[in-house]
Amino acid sequence: MVVETLPIYLSNPNDLISLPDVYFQVRDLVQQSAGTSEISQAIAYDPALTVRFLSIANSALFSPSTEISSVSRAVTLLGTQIVHDIVLASSVSDLFDGIPPEVIDTKTFWTQSVTCGVLAKSLADHLDVLDSGHVFIQGLLADIGHVLMYQHESEKMVKIIKLAIALGEKTHKIELRELGYNYCDIGGYLAEQWDLPAGIPETILHHQEPALAGEHTYETSIIHIARVLSEFSTASIVAPTFDSSALSTLKLAEEEVLSLYEQWTAAVNETV
């Protein structure tokens, strides 16, 4: 990603789109290996965030054996890293509200993003990835670059979406051709500016071309497949087409992925 090619509105991205202070407080506490009480208090201080947090913690995504009724219980059962990721997921949901309805339906966009996260975690679980919960947030944020583009380049994006439909071509390729950058570039840069944990900026930036992700190629391949399936799930595309390097990296055949997808649809529907 060449920063000089990015749009001028990204010169100070935190003035445009920012995460709440409670997220950064929780992130710092997790990095400092703080105790359950400190982390729980930081989350509980924001009532609205707490409601969203407990909703996600009790969803089919994490399948708790018993209902999680408090933040402290969630920290104890799920661990601090997953709690961090749930707080991040709870925090980003508000960012989607600023998308102009004439560009794309916000609910549909959020549903596709959550679907991508759920499918990414499902695939990671299938592949026995130890940190599968962390993969959920990578999938959820894969499309975050489009939030800024829909908000600040709405007219251009309407034309690009129409052109993609007319040509039957991937939107990100048209973005790159027409603008000199695409939503992956925007999202990867934004994740870096937020100082999100290692792996998240890389998967956002490279999930359309996972072979470029270096040491993060494996999880980026997971996000790539989940992103394609999420588009298919929400009828954004007619038939899924996967990057061959992603399938090779994960040692999966396309037919196997589609078979697994059929098994995961129930979990997706319960979560979104």
Keywords for this structure?
64% helix; single chain; globular; 272 residues; mainly alpha
Description of the structure:
Helix content is 64%, strand content 0%. It is built from 15 helices and no strands. With 272 residues, it is mainly α. Helix 6 packs antiparallel against helix 7 (132-140) and helix 8 (144-152) packs across helix 9.
Q: What's the Cα radius of gyration?
A: 18 Å
Taken from the alpha-carbon principal axes, the silhouette is globular
End-to-end span in angstroms? Answer: 32 Å
| Beta-strand proportion | under 5%
Mean of pLDDT: 87
Helix proportion: 55-70%
| SSE pattern | HHHHHHHHHHHHHHH
- Main sheet specs: none
Which spans have pLDDT < 50 for at least 5 consecutive residues? none
Number of helices: 15
> How many β-strand stretches?
0
- For this entry, what is the oligomeric state of its chains? single chain
Q: Structural class, from secondary structure content?
A: mainly alpha
Task: Summarize the structure in short.
This protein has 272 residues and is an all-alpha fold. It has helices at 21-31, 36-44, 47-57, 71-78, 80-92, 106-126, 132-140, 144-152, 154-167, 171-179, 183-193, 200-206, 217-233, 244-250, 254-271.
